[in-house]
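Before a colleague's protein record goes any further, I have to sign it off. What it holds is a sequence and that sequence's fold in token form. Would you go through it and say whether the fold makes sense for this chain? The record follows directly below this note.
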Amino acid sequence: MTAATAAPTLRGAAVGRGIGIGLMYGLFRPRVLGAWRVPTTGPVILAVNHAHNLDGPMLMGTAPRPVHFLIKKEAFVGPLDPFLRGIGQLKVDRTTVDRNAITQALGVLDDGGVLGIFPEGTRGEGDFASLRAGLAYFAVRGGAPIVPVAVLGSTERRGRLISALPPLRSRVDVVFGDAFQAGDGSGRRTRKALDEATLRIHGELTAHLGNARRLTGRL
């Protein structure tokens, strides 16, 4: 097994979580709401809105369990490649059906781990307006509940020292929603079943984002 295909480890993700905790709480002031909604054991998918590059590391440092994120292959450059692999993150080629990434992601769920996914596929408005089918596939195929997560405040202002990041010590809200099943309980993985699951997911994530904005006052 090569470094490119080596399975991500829980130990690596736990190290990544420790680094995330130190950095996120050291540089910013995260306010975490509803973390108790994440199941303490068993497979789970964290579906996160994505408006800023900070969103992934912020979730890694605030989630109650170590997270294995599916991350675009373009991020795995230079020394970041072995580092991201070492902390249990998964490299995915978004331009094709990346069977290695699919196998690794399903392996995380089969092992009872936490898979982090940006359902929109790429950074955007962070409003879950456009979902890709990958999340529905993993949820139905892996039989894992989805916990919606809203990261709010990462794009409101730019920092003076590093304009690509929010101001140091600024507050970023991370709101976890209620877990739900994407499938209809039949176990079907047909195109129609996945399309229906995607619609169900879209409704749940959009509703959670609205609730999170009201809860935090970030309307």
Observations:
- The longest strand covers residues 146-152.
- The chain has a mean pLDDT of 88.
- The first helix runs from residue 10 to 27.
